Amino acid sequence: MSDSAFSKLSLAEPLARAVAEMGYESMTPIQEQAIPVVLAGRDVMGAAQTGTGKTAAFSLPLLQRLLKHENASTSPARHPVRALVLLPTRELADQVAQQVKLYAKHTNLRSAVVFGGMDMKPQTAELKRGVEVLVATPGRLLDHIEAKNAVLNQVEYVVLDEADRMLDIGFLPDLQRILSYLPKQRTTLLFSATFSPEIKRLASSYLQDPVTIEVSRPNTTASTVEQHFYSVPDDDKRRAVRQIVRQRGITQAFVFVNSKLGCARLARSLEREGLKTTALHGDKSQDERLKALDAFKKGEVDLLVATDVAARGLDIKDVPAVFNFDVPFNAEDYVHRIGRTGRAGASGLAVTLVSPSDTRLMADLEKLLKRKIEIEAIEWDDERPRGRINDGRRAWREEDERRDERREPRQDFRRDARPPSAPKDPFFEQPYEPPAREEAPAWEANKPASTRVSANIKPKRKVAALFKSE
Ligand code: AMP
C-alpha cells in the first residue's frame, strides 16, 4: 500500500466507496497531512489554496466523525447542523457543497448550501428539513440565523475556508457574530492561502492549540509560465491587450483588474472593440455570474475580466493566458492570478501591464518573487518599421496571413477586421483544446465529470476540454 493511499486511513466504507467512485487514487499532500489531524479531533491552521484537494482534506474526516450521528429519521430534530463550512463567495460555497454531497452520498448525512443572490425560500425549506453539514457564505447565513431558519447550537465543527479572502472582503464582523452563536466546545479548521498578521490574530482568537499545516508556498510561480511585464500607460492598456491577443493568437484569457467598477467598464470597452468579453465581479447578480462563467467555460467568450475576489478558487484552472491589466494590490495575488495558466506542464503566458504609477506595487512584487523584474517596452503594431521585419514580427505576420487563408473567425480581434464574408470553418469554432499533458500529477488525473458541474449551475451542453479539471 503506498504511503498516500486512501486505504491507509481506514475510512468508513460509505466514504471509502465515494472516494473510490471519484477516481482518486492517492491523497494529495494536504489530505495526507490534514485528514489524520482532523480525525484526531485537533484544530487546524492550514495554508493551502484551492486546487490542492483541500475540500476533501477537511470534508472526509468531518463526515467520518459525524457518522456517529447518522440516522435515517425524517424528523428535522434528528438532523441538526453539526458542521459549518464558511466561504467568501457564492461560487466557492457552491463548489465546496457539491463536493461534500459527493463524499456523503452513501451516508445518511445531509448537506446543504446557502448563499446570497438566490431566493431564501428553497434554502429555508432545506434548512428546516434538517442538515448535518451546512456550507454557507457569511452574509446569507446571518440572514438565516436571524430568520431562525438555522440553529447552530449543536455545531461541533467549523471550517473557515479561504479565510484571508473573507477578511479581505470585510467579513470579519460577520464571522465574529456567527462564531459567537456556536458552542465553545468545537473543532475549528482554518484554511487560508496566506498567514497574514490578521489571519494569525483570527486564529489565535478562535482556534485552540491548532496544528499548522502548510503545503504550498505562496511566493512561487510555475516555471512553465512565460511572464512578461510591459510598461504601458493606463490609456493604452486596452490596445495592448488587443495587440497581444492578436499577435499571440490567444484563444482565451483571464484579464485581472483591481476594482469591481474597473472590471465592468473594461469588459464593456473590450466588447465594444470586438473582443468577446464577459465580466465577473461581486456586483453582478448570482445568475449573471453563473452565466458569465458558463459562457467562458463553453468557449463562447474569449476574455473573462475578473477581480481577484470573484475569480478566487473557481474551478477554471487552465487558460492559455492571463493578463494583469492592473498590477495587483497584494503581491500574492499575482501568484494566484498567474497560477491559472501553465498548469501541469502546459505552457502559459502571463502578461502584466505596468503603468508609471505602479512603482510601489512592483517593488512589493519583486520582494515577494525575490528577483528583479525586467519591464519591457511594448512594440506597437502600427509603429512597425516598414521594410524591415525582425523574426518575431515576421512570425506574427505569418501567423496573421495563415489566419487570413483559413478565414479564421477570430478576425474580430483585428482592428482592421474584414467582414466575415467567407464560410466559417467549424474547426475554428471549437473551444480551446489544451495540449496533451504528460505531467499531470497523479492525484489530478481521473476526476469524475460529476465534480465539474454544480447542481445550481445549469448543466452545460458542452464544456470546453480546457476546463476538464485536470
Ligand atoms: P479543491 O482544492 O478541494 O478545490 O480540489 C480541487 C480538485 O481536486 C477537485 O476537483 C477535487 O475533486 C479534486 N481532488 C481532490 N482530492 C483528490 C485526490 N486525492 N485525487 C484526485 N483528485 C482530487
Automatic annotation (TrEMBL):
Residues 396-456 are annotated as: Disordered. A motif (Q motif) lies at residues 4-32. Residues 35-213 form the Helicase ATP-binding domain. InterPro entries: DEAD/DEAH_box_helicase_dom, DEAD/DEAH_RhlB, DEAD_box_RNA_helicase, Helicase_ATP-bd, Helicase_C-like, P-loop_NTPase, RNA-helicase_DEAD-box_CS, RNA_helicase_DEAD_Q_motif. Residues 224-386 form the Helicase C-terminal domain. It comes from the Bacteria. Keywords: ATP-binding, Helicase, Hydrolase, Nucleotide-binding. The keyword Lipid biosynthesis does not apply. Residues 4-32 form the DEAD-box RNA helicase Q domain. The keyword Disulfide bond does not apply. One of its GO terms (molecular function) is helicase activity. Gene3D superfamilies: P-loop containing nucleotide triphosphate hydrolases. It holds the Pfam family DEAD. Residues 396-418 have a biased composition (Basic and acidic residues). Belongs to the DEAD box helicase family. This is DEAD/DEAH box helicase.
